[in-house]
Amino acid sequence: MSDTLSKLEAADFINRSFKPLPRSYGDALVEAALNDERVVCLTADLSPPTETDRFRDELPERFHNVGIAEANMIGIAGGMARSGEIPFVHSFCAFVTKRCFDQITMQAAYPNLPVKIVGFLPGVATLLGVSHQAIEDVAMMRSVPNMMVFESSGPQYHAAAVQLALQHDGPVYLRMKRPEKITDDPIVQLPLDYGKGKVQRNGTDLTIVAAGLEVVEALDAAEILTKEGIDAEVIDMHTIKPIDKELILQSASATGAMVTAENHNIIGGLGSAVAEVLTDAGIGLPFKRVGVQDQFCEGGTTPYLLKKFGLDSTAIASACRDVMKRKS
Asked: Distance between CA 188 and CA 27 in Å, rounded?
């Protein structure tokens, strides 16, 4: 009996191991396309990793695989946008920004066309190493006029990301992270407001402004700090451009200390954007940026990389302690 049970358990494990990862972004894109015939999908030969395989299978007449040619893909998307379509273009973050930055600026952003650029594998969180790690993309894309920059903190906001991209009348850069675990529980999609950060945790002693996968790390850091008597507010700054200046200034005034956390180089990313808001408003306060410390990284699992390069909850909590010392 036990032997039979163990075989059944093994079979169940094998079946589960081949279950696909949740495809919350891909499903949301298909739903958007079913509701708006202008939505089309382009990919640079990366359909499953960018969750566009369902679109390919269900709406093949509106799906275009241009091959490993990101710059050409942006040019095609620009032409399609001029013809009245709304193209969503897909590749890895490092490829869909750095390889075709000139095409993005001149064929999408300068004419202010509704080209929606969707990148996967954000920041350091990939086994594939430096060539696939995008630690400069936010700095590049938020410097482009007319461009909206969005980074979801989890798959529960992927549908909202698609809707916010459609809401912006111009080019958009969506920085997406696929779930890494298979779950039988459905992902409940939650709404977000355009250009408005989301307070994920209220606090009075300091503010942590985070984006992407760093939001979960920031919430974990806040729990660590609670045990030490430090009450941290956590803001999910999903829209990095246009950034929610009002919320940043309001929170800075309320707590008097601030830490930013991002899966990106500390130069030019979320931390820089928040610092610019504070500086322009003439606000000085204890402030620290958590992120990649202006260095190239290496491939590895997400937990390993976050710990090694100082992006995990422990590093965020340490930065918070530092600003609290300066605050006092």
From this structure: 13
Domains and CATH numbers, the chain: 24-176 (3.40.50.970), 198-327 (3.40.50.920)
What pLDDT tens digit does each residue of the chain (328 aa) get?
A: 344 444 444 444 444 445 666 789 999 999 999 999 999 999 999 999 999 999 999 999 999 999 999 999 999 999 999 999 999 999 999 999 999 999 999 999 999 999 999 999 999 989 999 999 999 999 999 999 999 999 999 999 999 999 999 999 999 999 999 877 766 677 889 999 999 999 999 999 999 999 999 999 999 999 999 999 999 999 999 999 999 999 999 999 999 999 999 999 999 999 999 999 999 999 999 999 999 999 999 999 999 999 999 999 999 999 999 999 999 8
Q: Give the CA distances from residue 184 to residues 50, 181, 294, in Å, rounded to whole numbers and listed in that order.
A: 21, 10, 39
